[in-house]
User: Fold this.
Amino acid sequence: MAETDLMRLPDMPLHDPFIVADKKTRAYHLYTSNDPSVSGVDGTGTMVYRSRDLRDWTRPVVVFLAAEQQGIWATDGGWAPEVHAWGDRYYLFTTLHDQDKPLPVPPPNQWGAPFRTPSHMRGTITAVSDSLLGPFTAVDPSRPTPPEHLMTLDGTLYVDPSGQPWMVYAHEWLQTIDGTMEAIRLAPDLSRSIGEPIFLFKASDASWISEQIPGGVPHQLPPYITDGPQLYRTPDGSLLMLWSTYEKNTAGQDGTVSGGYVQTYAVSKSGDLTGPWQQQRPLVRDDSGHGMLFETFDGRLMMVLHRPFDNARGKLYEMQLLGDELRVLRRRADLDGGG
Assistant:
């Protein structure tokens, strides 16, 4: 491929990055929401960049467009695309939403949330292809995969030791005030969810979220946000979940709270999806997040995330596992261009 056709991470619009290291082609596939300014294709969907070395990337190819799915329930969003091998096919998970489809106001939750913000249909769909380069076709275009009365996002695939597939997703703070991580079983063909969701943890379980709120300000200030789950099994059998939230570092007299996006993680030392989940200190701050772990072709553990939240670009970190403790070894500015 000609040098002029290649891109580098500082020049690549990139929100909610997800990398598949494909051993068959020895190429890294980096999926993100479609951006017409670089793909040349209009519409809500998913595009993929490819690289041999994590430094130089091909111009993106669009692999999924919501508007091309007959009978699709929503055509906005296209957030947090992930691609997973399952059986002999590839499955795309991506979040859609429709602001014109309001959801009923739920009853007060178990934490006594004092108010409810109007919510609308939002959830992750699954789409299937024979190729990492698509095209991907929605498995069930009529509804999201999690229960449609829940406002959810950022679904990811987890397969338990028995081979049962699950979707783990974030339940929006707009419905819960204190955002949660939940999981639901999937059918063997990933076409639908089975049974009822199970609760994993809530955002405020990460006690450090409120550490910097000034004295005298109530600590139960909404919202507490859950974003971007990804599951990773450690060599010692523990289960890690990368996830992101907002660190509340300032609070105004009117009760408004602001804070930076952060990349953190939780550990299930039992190795079971149901936990108990122990919250760990943030891995990366500086308005960074929605990261995921992957292994390079030479065996290094890496994390990709985006920074800043607006006008995001991909950032790469070399990681280390010590038992169930995840550490940042070094930032790979040589690959992601710094900044």
